[in-house]
Amino acid sequence: MAEVHRDRLVVLTPAGLSDLHPRDSSGAYAVGDWVLSDGVSAVRRLVPVSDLSRRAAGPGVAAQRIAANIDTIGIVTSCNEDFNIPRLERYLAMVTASGCLPLVILTKADVAEAPEDYVRQAHRLSPLVTALAVNAKDPEDAGRLTPWCSKAQTLALIGSSGVGKTTLRNTLTGENAATQEIRDDDARGRHTTTFRALRPTLAGGWLIDTPGMRELQLTDSAEGIEAVFDDLEVLAANCRFSDCGHDTEPGCAVKAAVTAGRIEPERVARWQKLLQEDRANSESLAAAHARQRRFGKLIKEAKAESRRKRDTER
Length: 314
Fold this sequence. Notes:
21% strand; 34% helix; alpha/beta; 3 domains; Rossmann fold; six-stranded mixed β-sheet; Ribonucleotide Reductase Protein R1, domain 1
């Protein structure tokens, strides 16, 4: 699947790009999906090897699929005010839960005074992290990303608007997609990419570009959170009580580590916040799915009853 639109799916075939009609809602599909087709419609979506999703933005309760069948997800941020530790931890939890390898890509290294400082901060987030500082406009420097987007490897780019995802896309694919300047006051940018797209790279792999995310709510990401905050999970296993809230309980190993200066209290607070958010969102989605199943069952029962009445009247 190269592109997903409301009324059509753009797929890659041996003959090139082709349009298909979705038999069900286009929201069931994501860029990177493999589908079976009759030449006109998408008949069936194959189960993906990896699946990146989040809670959909807005007040509703729904999961939004972002991309599928990805090998590595590049979390793109820049060596300026956009660099944000809590947001990176959030991205890392989502990426790890999807079954993909996380790669932190730090752009605008050519205009930063000390890009290596940002790289060190990113590496400290988790042992899972590989971090690179690059000049997205320089093909040779951006070429350091080749191992993650060559030889049939698929690299997806996620991050805020204005951090250089589209510039990287142009450099790695040879395209000329439009880019926009960022604001000087807060290093933020406007949306350049308006829809997710899968494109071949010059190195022989694939790249998925995504629009900037302004809201990132986690759901079904408990395993990812545990992996990113593995040090805190190990400490928590040594607390006196299995349901320790790491607040006022006696025998709390996490509190003891904070008191001893081995763990930053802010990191503990961020860990607890993500766990609470993921738990609440996952429970809300589970309840919504249960309601949908009950409604579907009622519809089937009503149709069956209607058929029985018609058969009786004949």
